[in-house]
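ok so I'm stuck.
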Amino acid sequence: MTTKLPEGYKPSSDEEFMNERQSLYFHTKLLVWKEEILRESKETLAHLQEDSQKEPDIADRASSETDWSIELRTRDRQRKLITKIDAAIERLNKGEYGYCEVTGEPIKLERLEARPIAMMSLEAQEEHEKFEKVHRDS
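replied:
not stuck anymore, here's the structure
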């Protein structure tokens, strides 16, 4: 695999889908995203440890606890996101990345750019969500 992408490279529909450059581009994008989430999580933990002293005022304490709760919920969502990022990297390594798990067709580059962990084409995702909504409401 190529070790470096040309500066400013962006995947294009003019090239073969999920060629070496596109694969490397999305691999790098996923790794950078994961590292950013992990860094933010470490910062949150450090912040929570620093602020763990109890404020004497009950209103301040309640406010801090609410803030911590929101932060921890955000971190939990990001932990789940890391699992999805790891799964996307695994699909890249297997040569399955970028293909809809329902239709087997390539997922549009614009969708992968916006949501690099996408496993379905936009159309398949919309159908899946309609199906879930119908069955959830039943």
